[in-house]
Backbone:
């Protein structure tokens, strides 16, 4: 069983704060982490390997600093990792990113399953996983909450809005996972020692035979034209008095507005 | 395409360093330096520089769609579950209708399903569709990525829509992401605002990024269709007056390959306990960490019950296992816009706010006077949830007899 | 924290344990305390992270026999929860006799499973009438062919009932006094070996404390640690070696309380300003921090000395345990004081820290016994001059 996991290094958005004076993001001191859903993807890959044998390869596209995320993947138990990094990738949107990762997977060669997190917490697009599946022309199963290997097929439960859908898909395929699928393990000491010693393999655009017209800004159909901080909503009315008084004045106001 | 700092103009003021949402600019020997591996060429720095020292070179490569002008009209993907149309599709038809006035074009609904699906068509016209592209086949009864993608791709090739809107549901996101690669289109996820650029006549797509901390406006200038997914409840659905007279249905032959059918749907697990119709609820009472204990969700449930509302929850409580993920409101949960949203013990991290700030009336109960939730609340109650919620429940019970 | 010149692996261990403590222990510590629930889930995480064999040599599946590494891990766990800290540390206490005195065969049999975290160990010395005065032991082991028949009850045994492997001291020859004690390895499930009720404690409430009850419990002579009559030596050498671990536990508890006190003092506004800006509060915090650092420095240096092969460290090990546990009690009490009414409430973690801290002055030799030990060492040293 050859499993490839695609991960992204992201700023911990729960730590991002806005400077109220300049209305800009304060990035100082915001740690870089593995996108949390991608940790679930790594965990699921490791569990499948533990049950059925095989190899887990974790890849990421990003700046050289993204090596740290790959080291953490090794510390969790990944067998192999690769970084694909090139200045030519600057400005990639999900279209170009999925192309680049698909090229990297082709370069790596064999795979039975590709795992991705359902989305990244900085972009929240949920587009790269299905994009990779399209480039590789394999089936995609998104929002997996339960995965069970049955011979050359996988039974997957998908977490939809109102119910879970059970589907069956032949290998090879691409799965994106939700956080409810598992609880990612913490790194092990032996894994951390291994990670420290591992030289991270890095591929350039040329190494993965990436078409310059399909990568980076050139390969990205979308353009960001404006970035702004959402205007703060005006504060409302603070009710005062004792609990009983506050509750009463709330109810009379809601009645006035015909809300209740 | 590229970006550079004009060394002679840079005054070393560091404004751009602060403006960069990606932390890609650093100061070296009192001049700004851009780290191209982190830069996404978003241009946020360009407008902040008072010295015009940052140059964004916008030469476009020739990878776009040929003959852009032949792409016309706005399409909306009609999502349904076994024939029951998802309300987000109506919301998008309403929004498409608005946009079509700026573009002076038509709105078309794209509907795939089995034979029975035709029953739902009238409603589509009443929400603003001028046309319906209909493709029926037994294999279209339930949504599956591959067969839907192939047929819609053929539709796009033949009829060339300029804009294609899809609901940002699990189904819509699954489809849009695959389709955008196949038809070589730009796709913007989870838009909260759409408008037509008055000069260029292209679609401005505004969406939150970085967990809702910033907003970004995105365009797809050289690719067609311009694709966007939009979350349910971001737009309101409004029936058109005098609609329903025109019934223009264009039947499209399904295109299905054997390889598209390898994924088999085995069934649905419908646990009634997970049925939380948050997005349909008119009143939502949500609990956060401030209710101190998972047991206290009972109080939240009771208040919701007397109001005939639904129960929501913050990410923190879901992560802590206090309540199932189906209740989660916010960035990684559901976007809701009820008439009344009561936030109990929710501090109001931006991730939560983006999921509920469209609510008509917001009531916040929190014991921390600095909780950000008060900044967007219509009414704020500073106090302990464990006292306020039962008092509120009691009063409403009295009121309703 | 001061740069103590640690090796990279020690820093790595600290980071890893801190991550586990913050992510896995902190969210459940109040609940574990309230329900007096044994932290099996957390032990599983520690095992998966390879942290159960920090003090065990690599040949037995451990990380390399480092008391310092073990102390760092115990400190970081205790910083978040003293109960989890002692559960982790007590397994080391229970298996150290096997490490020091076990035969190759005994080590091969027991250590790999302990190192892998598959089994817990416990140490059984204390009895109802033999606490600080271990010569009052009443549990007997009577020779019967190739076997020994054990009778008696051990009291307040940490990890009792949860552990699989027990190092137990029993009297084989009462007439010989201290030289009549023998140490045995006894596995859970041995016929005649049972457990008493789980004790209800003031603090460290997620840890399990039970009686070990022996009724005609038949143990093969191969289960003896060292030789017959060496029981007290086994116990004393073990306690010498694990005392810095109790010191580390105490340092952790104290540090956790200081963290909370500082956080609170920065947030709490009285008289229009955060109370941390009040000098009286600053002085309290300064005293707390100073004592913690002094304790930590001593714990680390004793641990390092042991790792470097020091032979005689009984006195310093006692000193480390003494100062660190007194510090833990002092600091947690001050933290409750700084936080006032909030500190006294169970909603905040410092009252639990104060309850947890108290035991560090009592177990593995009360602080009075430590002082005796130090005094005795001083007399011995002066006699040698």
Residues:
């Amino acid at each position: 069983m050859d499993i490839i996991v695609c991960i992204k290094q992201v700023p911990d958005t729960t730590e991002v704060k806005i400077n109220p004076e300049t209305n800009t993001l304060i990035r100082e001191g915001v740690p870089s982490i593995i996108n949390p859903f991608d940790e679930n993807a790594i965990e699921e890959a490791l569990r499948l390997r533990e049950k059925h044998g095989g190899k887990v390869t974790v890849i990421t596209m990003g700046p050289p600093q993204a090596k740290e995320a790959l080291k953490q993947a090794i510390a969790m138990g990944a067998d192999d990792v690769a970084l694909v990094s090139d200045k030519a990738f600057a400005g990639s949107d999900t279209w170009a990113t999925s192309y680049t990762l698909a090229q990297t997977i082709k370069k790596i060669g064999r795979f039975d399953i590709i795992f991705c997190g359902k989305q990244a917490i900085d972009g929240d697009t949920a587009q790269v996983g299905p994009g990779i599946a399209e480039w590789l022309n394999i089936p995609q199963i998104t929002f997996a909450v339960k995965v069970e290997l049955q011979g050359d097929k996988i039974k997957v439960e998908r977490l939809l809005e109102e119910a879970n859908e059970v589907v069956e898909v032949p290998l090879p395929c691409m799965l994106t996972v939700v956080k409810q699928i598992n609880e990612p393990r913490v790194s092990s000491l032996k894994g951390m020692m291994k990670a420290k010693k591992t030289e991270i393999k890095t591929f350039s655009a040329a190494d993965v035979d990436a078409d310059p017209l399909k990568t980076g800004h050139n390969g990205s159909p979308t353009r960001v034209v404006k970035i702004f901080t959402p205007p703060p909503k005006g504060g409302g009315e603070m009710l005062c008095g004792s609990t009983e008084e506050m509750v009463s004045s709330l109810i009379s106001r809601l009645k006035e507005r015909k809300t209740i | 395409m590229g970006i550079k700092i004009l060394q002679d103009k840079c005054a070393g003021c560091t404004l751009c360093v602060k403006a960069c949402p990606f932390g890609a600019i650093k100061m070296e020997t009192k001049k700004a330096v851009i780290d191209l591996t982190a830069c996404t060429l978003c241009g946020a720095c360009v407008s902040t520089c008072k010295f015009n020292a940052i140059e964004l070179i916008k030469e476009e490569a020739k990878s776009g769609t040929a003959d852009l002008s032949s792409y016309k009209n706005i399409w909306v993907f009609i999502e349904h579950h076994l024939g029951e149309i998802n309300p987000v599709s109506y919301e998008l038809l309403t929004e498409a209708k608005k946009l079509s006035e700026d573009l002076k074009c038509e709105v078309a609904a794209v509907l795939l399903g089995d034979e029975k699906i035709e029953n739902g068509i009238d409603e589509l016209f009443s929400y603003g569709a001028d046309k319906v592209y209909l493709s029926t086949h037994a294999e279209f009864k339930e949504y599956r990525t591959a067969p839907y993608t192939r047929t819609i791709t053929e539709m796009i090739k033949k009829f060339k829509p300029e804009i294609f809107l899809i609901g940002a549901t699990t189904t819509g996101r699954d489809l849009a992401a695959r389709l955008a690669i196949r038809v070589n289109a730009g796709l913007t996820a989870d838009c909260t605002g759409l408008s037509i650029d008055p000069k260029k006549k292209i679609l401005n797509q505004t969406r939150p990024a970085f967990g809702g901390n910033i907003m970004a406006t995105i365009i797809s200038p050289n690719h067609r269709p311009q694709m966007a997914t939009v979350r349910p409840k971001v737009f309101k659905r409004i029936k058109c007056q005098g609609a329903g007279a025109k019934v223009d249905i264009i039947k499209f032959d399904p295109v299905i390959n054997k390889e598209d059918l390898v994924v088999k749907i085995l069934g649905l697990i419908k646990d009634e306990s997970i049925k939380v119709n948050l997005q349909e609820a008119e009143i939502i009472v949500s609990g956060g960490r401030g209710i101190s204990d998972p047991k206290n969700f009972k109080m939240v449930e009771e208040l919701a019950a007397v109001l005939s509302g639904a129960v929501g929850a913050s990410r923190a409580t879901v992560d802590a296992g206090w309540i199932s993920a189906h209740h989660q409101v916010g960035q990684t949960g559901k976007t809701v816009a009820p008439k009344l949203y009561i936030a109990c013990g929710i501090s109001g991290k931006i991730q939560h706010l983006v999921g509920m700030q469209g609510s008509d009336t917001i009531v916040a109960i929190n014991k921390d006077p600095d909780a950000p939730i008060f900044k967007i609340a219509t009414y704020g109650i500073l106090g302990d949830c464990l006292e306020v919620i039962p008092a509120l429940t009691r009063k409403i019970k009295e009121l309703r007899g | 924290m001061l740069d103590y010149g640690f090796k990279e692996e020690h820093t790595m261990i600290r980071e890893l344990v801190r991550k586990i403590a913050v992510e896995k222990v902190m969210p459940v510590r109040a609940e574990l305390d309230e329900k007096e629930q044994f932290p099996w889930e957390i032990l599983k995480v520690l095992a998966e992270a390879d942290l159960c064999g920090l003090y065990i040599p690599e040949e037995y599946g451990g990380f390399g026999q480092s008391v310092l590494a073990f102390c760092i891990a115990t400190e970081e766990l205790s910083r978040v929860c003293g109960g989890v800290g002692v559960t982790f540390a007590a397994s080391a206490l229970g298996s150290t006799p096997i490490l020091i005195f076990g035969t190759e065969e005994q080590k091969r049999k027991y250590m790999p499973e302990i190192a892998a975290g598959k089994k817990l160990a416990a140490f059984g010395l204390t009895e109802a009438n033999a606490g600080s005065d271990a010569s009052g032991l009443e549990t007997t082991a009577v020779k019967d062919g190739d076997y020994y028949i054990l009778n008696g009850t051990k009291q307040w045994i940490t990890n009792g009932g949860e552990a699989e492997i027990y190092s137990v001291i029993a009297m084989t020859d009462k007439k010989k006094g201290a030289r009549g004690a023998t140490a045995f390895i006894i596995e859970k499930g041995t016929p005649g070996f049972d457990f008493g009720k789980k004790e209800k404690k003031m603090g460290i409430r997620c840890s399990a404390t039970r009686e070990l009850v022996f009724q005609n419990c038949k143990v093969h002579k191969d289960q003896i640690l060292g030789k017959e009559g060496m029981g007290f030596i086994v116990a004393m050498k073990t306690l010498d070696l694990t005392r810095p671990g109790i010191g580390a536990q105490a340092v952790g508890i104290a540090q956790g309380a200081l963290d909370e006190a500082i956080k609170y003092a920065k947030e709490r506004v009285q008289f229009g300003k955060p109370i941390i800006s009040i000098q009286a509060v600053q002085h309290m915090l300064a005293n707390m921090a100073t004592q913690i650092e002094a304790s930590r420095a001593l714990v680390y240096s004793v641990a390092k000395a042991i790792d470097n092969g020091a032979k005689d460290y009984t006195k310093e090990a006692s000193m480390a345990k003494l100062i660190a546990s007194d510090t833990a009690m002092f600091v947690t009490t001050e933290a409750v004081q700084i936080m006032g009414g909030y500190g006294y409430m169970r909603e905040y973690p410092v009252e639990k820290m104060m309850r947890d801290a108290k035991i560090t002055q009592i177990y593995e030799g009360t602080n009075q016994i430590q002082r005796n030990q130090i005094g005795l060492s001083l007399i011995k040293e002066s006699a040698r001059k």
